[in-house]
TrEMBL record:
Name of the protein: Cytochrome c oxidase assembly protein subunit 15
Organism: Flavobacterium glaciei
Pathways per UniProt: Porphyrin-containing compound metabolism
GO cellular component: membrane
Molecular functions per Gene Ontology: metal ion binding; oxidoreductase activity
Transmembrane segments: 12-30, 116-135, 142-159, 171-194, 206-224, 251-274, 286-304, 310-330
Alphabetic keyword roster: Cell membrane, Disulfide bond, Heme biosynthesis, Iron, Membrane, Metal-binding, Oxidoreductase, Transmembrane, Transmembrane helix
Domain of life of the native organism: Bacteria
Length: 340
């Protein structure tokens, strides 16, 4: 069991990142409402590819929960039945959770693949939890941590559903993102605890403290970023073109933009300290690359009116940055424990 545990935990981590990427792509392409219902999609396990499949069809066999679009409204089959020649109200209930009734196959399939990846990541987390029982004698905490990850994944799935029901309320999207960071953090703790080839950092209290501060700054910057994104969502939903999305930004945007200088400066200092004192924190190189591309994508969004893909890149890089920094903190923390 132990042999497969680390592999399974790593696969789960990669899948969680893929889900974050897919979620960001869903938003970029505006596919969030591609499936109006949840967990099924238009009442199907495999969604339709053609609008025709969603129109009322005489003599067609409908199953309970199946959805059709009629007069720009969604209707849900009450029971299994075979349709007569006419649309009969008694067979259908109006879908009332929202009034979004558009079918766009690309949106539907982008959202559907996002959900499939979510399900795969969930399964990987459950498998990891089951395998964690191999550690029940010596490292019981792995069982608890793997279980918390499963609970958080279920919470994310539930939140995904409420996000659909509330037509993508920005507040819920932000919670969704912060919960994703928590999942990543716990999964990294799990992986780090069982890895045997961890390379120790050279102990340096000042470096470790600044490293922790830099992680906290990144988290603050991510929270500020989600606020900027909420503003962008509100403006873009009015149908305004990209050029107007940040024409009158909130003060939080300016704080977010300037804050990145602080984040960059503190990490550049850590990088400098690491090279000067040979502390073995080689992952700082990745932190610097990720930060550079993060800032470039932010600049591109603001000064070049959100070129295609930059929103997705910005969010995915932010979560990768968090992951690498969190891992570095784990390395410094365990090395401190060894010294005590
Ligand atoms: C340390 C560097 C940075 C980090 C970690 C960071 C992180 C984030 C995060 C996590 C979001 C929320 C994404 C979402 O919820 O979809 C965001 C949004 C945003 N950030 Fe940054 N950011 C950084 C630097 C910058 C810079 C330098 C700029 C501009 C000059 C910028 C402009 C924006 C904009 C315009 C949004 C809204 C994006 C959207 O609507 O999808 N960011 N940022």
């Amino acid at each position: 069991m132990q042999k497969y545990f680390l592999k399974s935990a790593k696969i789960a981590l990669v899948l969680v990142y893929l889900v974050i990427f897919a979620g960001a792509f869903v938003r970029l392409t505006g596919s969030g409402m591609g499936c109006p219902d949840w967990p099924k999609c238009f009442g199907y396990y495999i969604p339709p590819t053609d609008q025709k499949e969603l129109l009322f069809t005489p003599s067609k066999e409908y199953t309970k929960g199946q959805v059709i679009i009629k007069e720009e409204a969604l209707w849900v089959a009450k029971e299994d039945f075979v349709a007569t020649d006419r649309f009969e109200n008694s067979n259908w209930t109006a879908y009332e959770k929202h009034d979004y009734a558009i079918f766009n196959p690309i949106h539907t399939w982008v959202e559907y693949i996002n959900r499939l990846l979510g399900a795969l990541a969930g399964i990987a987390c459950i498998v990891t939890f089951v395998l964690s029982f191999g550690y029940r004698k010596h490292q019981k905490n792995l069982i608890y941590l793997s279980f918390i990850v499963c609970v958080l994944m279920a919470f994310q799935a539930w939140l995904g559903k409420t996000v659909v029901d509330s037509v993508l309320s920005p507040y819920k999207i932000t919670t969704h993102m912060l919960a994703a960071l928590l999942i990543l953090a716990i999964q990294l703790v799990v992986i780090y605890s069982v890895k045997t080839n961890n390379k120790p950092l050279v102990f340096n209290t000042k470096f470790n403290t600044i490293l922790l501060v830099s992680l906290v700054l990144t988290i603050i910057q991510i929270v500020l970023g989600t606020d900027v994104r909420e503003h962008v969502d509100i403006v873009s939903k009015t149908g305004a073109p990209e050029i107007m999305w940040l024409q009158n930004p909130t003060v939080i945007f300016y704080i977010h933009r300037s804050f990145s200088i602080l984040v960059l400066a503190i990490n550049a200092f850590l990088f400098y300290m690491n090279s000067k004192l040979n502390l073995n924190a080689s992952k700082l190189k990745w932190v610097m690359y990720l930060l550079a591309f993060e800032i470039i994508s932010g600049i591109a969004m603001y000064y070049f009116d959100f070129p295609f893909g930059t929103q997705t890149i910005h969010i995915v890089l932010a979560t990768l940055l968090f992951g690498v920094q969190f891992y570095l903190v784990l390395e410094s923390y365990s090395q401190r424990k060894k010294q005590l």
